[in-house]
Design brief:
- Helices cover 64% and strands 0% of the residues.
- The protein has 281 residues and is mostly helical.
- The radius of gyration is 19 Å and the shape is globular.
Length: 281
């Protein structure tokens, strides 16, 4: 990820970030969902900062209020999953954000409807969302793109497995369902012609990584083979992280201790990616 231009964030943003992060954390305290919890929201925020930095370099600058709204939307977009695992959880996320705003009426002394709009619609991928440079409604495509970015790479592999298995999709059906949704997300990304090339290329490579992982499982199945190692990684994640007490990064580090090359490589890439995207500052 590229370094964030310090001019992008104001003192208000630097104070708001830990406040929203901790509130998001508190919402997930009673709902164990490692794939979409407060750290997912933080990773999405860091992808958004990466994207804003590149847009800034291209002369596209969101104003202070827009960035505040983007931060608000980012840290609430998936909080509705604490109420329902349904794909239309955006409505519940909207309600949780509105409750937060009602309890903190002086925090955002300007129109917050664009943030609430983005929260509710972030998972409804239109072929191309309009992007007009400095208009506050532009937070929706930024949020949607950066949320999708967390569905790629090694973290994306595990996030897909967790949420789909919890939604009742069988292990055998997992590769087909993941590959279909992943392609849908990436086609949405490709349709956003305003995205800077460097950002697009980085996440294209991460998309290919996750795609290759699930394609390998599918191809082995079609050959009558069971992809034991890749399924073992998913199974270990569910046992250790979802059902156990192991953290995402601790799980990545544990894979590095494996003598199996596939597990070791996956753990190394996962750990490096999480290190980059889970920093609060």
């Amino acid at each position: 990820m590229s370094s964030v231009n310090p001019a992008i964030l104001s003192g208000f943003h630097l104070e708001l970030l830990p406040l929203l992060f901790q509130h998001c954390r508190s919402l997930f305290a009673g709902s164990h969902l490692p794939s979409h919890d407060h750290y997912h929201h933080l990773r999405v925020w860091n992808y958004a900062m990466d994207l804003l930095s590149e847009l800034w370099g291209n002369g596209i600058k969101l104003n202070e209020n827009d960035i505040s709204l983007l931060m608000l939307a980012t840290f609430f977009h998936d909080t509705g999953l604490t109420k329902t695992l349904d794909k239309d959880h955006g409505t519940e996320s909207h309600l949780l954000c509105q409750d937060f705003l009602n309890r903190n009426p002086s925090l955002f002394p300007f129109d917050v409807s664009p943030a609430l709009h983005a929260i509710e619609l972030h998972d409804k991928k239109e072929p191309q969302l309009p992007f007009g440079g400095n208009h506050c409604m532009d937070i929706l495509p930024i949020l949607s793109v950066c949320d999708d970015a967390d569905a790629y790479g090694p973290a994306g592999v595990l996030r897909y497995a967790e949420i789909y298995l919890l939604r009742g999709i069988t292990v055998d059906a997992l590769p087909d369902r993941v590959l279909k949704n992943m392609a849908y997300r990436f086609n949405f990304l490709l349709a956003q012609k305003w995205i800077p090339e460097k950002f697009m290329l980085r996440h294209h490579a991460r998309y290919r990584y996750a795609e290759k992982y699930y394609k390998a499982i599918k191809e082995n199945r079609e050959l009558g083979k069971k992809d034991t190692v890749r399924f073992e990684i998913i199974d270990s994640y569910m046992k250790q992280v979802y059902y156990g007490n192991t953290g995402f990064m601790e799980f990545a580090a544990s894979l590095n201790e494996s003598t199996d090359k596939t597990k070791n490589d996956f753990g190394s890439k996962l750990f490096a990616e999480l290190q980059q995207t889970m920093a609060i500052s």
